[in-house]
Amino acid sequence: MNLEKLFGSKTKVDILKYLLFRRQWISMRALEWEMERTFPAIKKQVDSLNSAKVLDVNTDWNGRSITIKPELYGMLKQIFHYSLKTWLIELFGQYEVMIDKYFFWKCFGIDLDMDLVIIYKNCEKAQLDKFRENIGEVFKDYFIEVVNVVFMTSDDWEKRYRLSDKFVIDIMRTKQF
Known about the structure:
Layout: H1 3-7, H2 10-21, H3 28-35, H4 39-51, E1 55-60, E2 63-68, H5 70-94, E3 99-104, E4 116-120, H6 125-141, E5 149-153, H7 154-162, H8 166-173
Parallel strand pairs: 4-5
Antiparallel strand pairs: 1-2, 3-4
């Protein structure tokens, strides 16, 4: 899902990503520094989102702080999770020869201790390292810096499944592709 096409601006999308996945109650100056964009670009998009009734811009003696309207927060988070999942699935398609299965968890709303579980076939270490790096880049694009990704070989997965390993059984019970 191309959020820039949906929302009309990469800066606007990045502001929403930051507010959804990093933190709210941030000033425009802090966004400028964090996102490495110019203040006028950020102000223009914040004003646009504010006039569209997506954001609350609170002005007090500390300055302006920006938040997503509480009634829209959940819906926007679902849209952005869908987009994140779509980008990850597209990435997995590039590595389909080495990926056997994958499961989405914690950061996608499922209550387990990891965010992503990837079962892969035997591959070279360099190939796996590149894949890990690409996954990290996708999450960083959404301002998600801490991600718990579990990589497991297909053989290990099968062995643990046969032994009724709690980790594998929990995944199979609440399986989310």
